[in-house]
Write a structure and sequence with these properties.
TIM Barrel, eight-stranded parallel barrel, 2 domains
């Protein structure tokens, strides 16, 4: 019997969405508690990453009760430091008061991690960056980003912080835009409790090989968490995992297994037009097929083929293992 890992999802998977065409949303708005209730309908889902602040009027005790009622646990808190108040930046905002508000939101998120017994505070300062040449002093915005993360890490030594890098969107260039740059920033912070959440889709979108970045982060002891989805590489589409790049996703999890990396396998999907529960079920079904593949795949034979850089031999092995496993348990 296959031993599956624990599966998680960003709670935003169960929200409704807007874009510049459907500004009135692809469905009626759903609050934190409604999202938790929908997440509870997904088979094999154990963990959720929760946005903070919660929906207006929702208390932490209500969140605790909802999680318990739906047999869910909070894996992380994602403070919302990328909204309207932060359009000129969160940590890099030229207004010191706005910058302090962003740091305060992060601190409140850290307090909520303790309240909910979560594993980390997730940092996604999507508005930190620039849009035009000459718009910013690059030394200044880099220092502000590093200093803010260092401050949070030092003030909360009992907690882990993860940075989720992304090449762009909403800014045309984001401060934390690839794995190597993020590692450099963390090293400059000089703290042990800041790492990386590697988003598979962001890595694809950034022109990276996600497995290569996972190995780099593992080698530096900084792969604290990960999530998966899929896209067509030209944008952060947040499609259901496995629908576009199944072989590369298999390689990603092969790399994690090879390095004995343990953690929650998380979904970061945005099913704009799809049923949110069924989209999550499909993603987890694919991840379970990945698990079954990793049980039967011949890692020694793959290592031998890699040593010879024999692309055809290794593709035969991984395709046969994956597509056989997808046929069922």
């Amino acid at each position: 019997m296959t031993q599956y890992p624990e599966f998680g999802a960003g709670l935003w998977h169960f929200a409704t969405y807007v874009d510049r065409y459907a500004v009135d949303r692809y469905g009626d708005p759903r609050g934190t508690l409604e999202q938790i209730e929908l997440a509870g309908k997904v088979k094999d889902l154990t963990w959720v990453d929760i946005n903070y602040p919660f929906s207006p009027g929702v208390t932490v005790d209500e969140v605790k009760d909802a999680l318990k009622a739906n047999n869910l646990k909070c894996v992380g808190i994602t403070p919302e430091i990328y909204l309207r108040d932060h359009v000129r930046g969160a940590f890099t905002n030229p207004d010191d008061a706005a910058r302090r508000r962003a740091i305060d939101i992060m601190q409140a998120g850290a307090d909520m991690v303790r309240e909910l017994g979560a594993r980390y505070v997730k940092t996604w300062p999507g508005q930190d960056g620039w849009d035009y040449p000459f718009q910013v002093d690059y030394h200044d915005v880099w220092k502000k980003s590093v200093d803010a993360m260092r401050e949070l890490a030092i003030n909360n030594p009992d907690l882990n912080f993860v940075i989720e890098y992304k090449p762009r969107e909403p800014r045309n260039h984001m401060i934390w835009n690839n794995a190597s740059r993020t590692i450099l920033g963390i090293q400059e912070m000089g703290v042990d409790n800041v790492g990386v959440l590697l988003d598979f889709g962001h890595s694809l979108f950034g022109g990276e090989t996600p497995s290569d970045e996972a190995q780099l982060l593992i080698d530096h002891g900084k792969l604290f968490a990960m999530d998966v989805n899929d896209n067509f590489r030209g944008w952060d589409d947040d499609l259901v995992v496995g629908t576009v790049h199944p072989i590369e996703i298999l390689e990603f999890f092969y790399t994690l297994k090879k390095n004995n990396w343990e953690g929650v396998w998380q979904l970061d999907e945005f099913p704009f037009r799809e049923d949110v529960v069924e989209a999550a079920n499909l993603g987890i079904d694919f991840l379970k097929a990945i698990c079954r593949t990793l049980e039967v795949i011949d890692m020694d034979a793959i290592a031998q083929a890699q040593a010879a850089q024999d692309a055809i031999a290794v593709q035969r092995m991984v395709q046969k293992a994956l597509f056989s496993s997808m046929a069922g348990e």
